[in-house]
Amino acid sequence: MNAKKELLDHIKDREVKYVRVIREISYDDKMTIEGSLDAVLLLLDFDYDSGYGGQGLEGTVWYSDGTWSDRGEYDGSERWEHRECPSLPNRLVYAPAYQELNSDDVIVGGVIRSQTPTRQ
Prior knowledge:
5-stranded antiparallel beta sheet, 3 helices, alpha+beta, two-stranded antiparallel sheet, extended
């Protein structure tokens, strides 16, 4: 698999802010390639074994829309995966502004359970 083609196929039309790729050269030696997409692509034009075995490439791509992709390995197969931060549940988005949580409070079933004794 060609690392440059694989990354470009994954990115598609997303606007990239920054890229970091870590290439395994040998068992004890890794090379980090990072910077703008154009700069990284110059050094990613190589073929590697993306099949079963150790992970030959690791990395993260940050996008302008706040999402990212990271490089994962599952059951011996490597791939890029696009990720986005999950939305807050509505009960947290619309919580009353006056309701502040202490660092050790817990929300159980939509109800705040304070773990600190109240002052009287």
